[in-house]
Structure formats: C-alpha cells, structure tokens
Design goal:
60 residues; 17% strand
Length: 60
Amino acid sequence: MTTSDMFVIVGAGLAGAKTAGALRKKGFGGRVLGRTHPPCTASSRHFRTSTTITAPKSGS
C-alpha cells in the first residue's frame, strides 16, 4: 500500500475507530475516512410498535 491509498470505514463507531487504529498500527499511512449516519434526535425516531414496552411485573 502507498500513502496515496485510502480506506473508507463504514460505521464510525467503536468498531470503526478500532479498525482505523489497527490500520495505523500495521503501518498504513494513507487516508482513513469514517462514514456513518448523521446522529438522530429523539423527535426523528419512528416507533415500530403501537404498544408501550414496559418492564415485566415482579412475581411473573
């Protein structure tokens, strides 16, 4: 690999960060780009059920 090579890591969470770190540790000096979905807010989430999920009742 040359320093003009580039890796695109899909998923910039913990696994993506560890992947980028492993590339550097192995000597990769090129560009590393992490891509992920934009952060979502609570108001942009859609519920997938019409019922409320609750903790089980004790004694059940």
